[in-house]
């Protein structure tokens, strides 16, 4: 049984790059175009990890992380922020909201896959 990862990013091309890397590594992938769409995808199915951008329309990544942490089914789902934001205060804000890792774009797929493998929930 493969593990399911939710990608939340407003860039379709970035979602595609991450999607390809993850499916090649054997993960199942669900995509969302912003935080609100991401929350809509949290519909009770098992999600083993979430990868989210920070800067998105409608609902940004930090607000999305806070909302996920309020959701009883997904409160403990690990979240990796994948973003152009490298400032320490943004990282701290993300960690305080509940993000477990911070990968800065542009990124190497291997670097992201390492973070995913380390954090993905067991079945």
Please give a quick description of this structure:
The protein has five helices and five strands.
Oligomer: single chain
CATH superfamily descriptor = Response regulator
Could you give a short account of the major beta sheet?
5 strands, parallel
Look at the structure and give the mean pLDDT: 95
- Note the beta-strand portion: 15-25%
CATH-scheme architecture: 3-Layer(aba) Sandwich
Regions with little confidence, pLDDT below 50 for 5+ residues: none
Question: Shape, please?
Answer: globular
Number of helices: 5
Total discrete domains: 1
Q: What integer value in Å does the Rg equal?
A: 13 Å
Structural class: alpha/beta
User: How far apart are the termini?
Assistant: 9 Å
Briefly, what CATH class? Answer: Alpha Beta
InterPro entries: Bact_response_regulator, CheY-like_superfamily, Sig_transdc_resp-reg_receiver
Pfam families: Response_reg
Keywords: Phosphoprotein
Protein name: Response regulator
Topology:
Layout: E1 4-8, H1 12-24, E2 28-32, H2 35-41, E3 49-52, H3 61-70, E4 79-83, H4 88-97, E5 101-104, H5 109-119
Parallel strand pairs: 1-2, 1-3, 3-4, 4-5
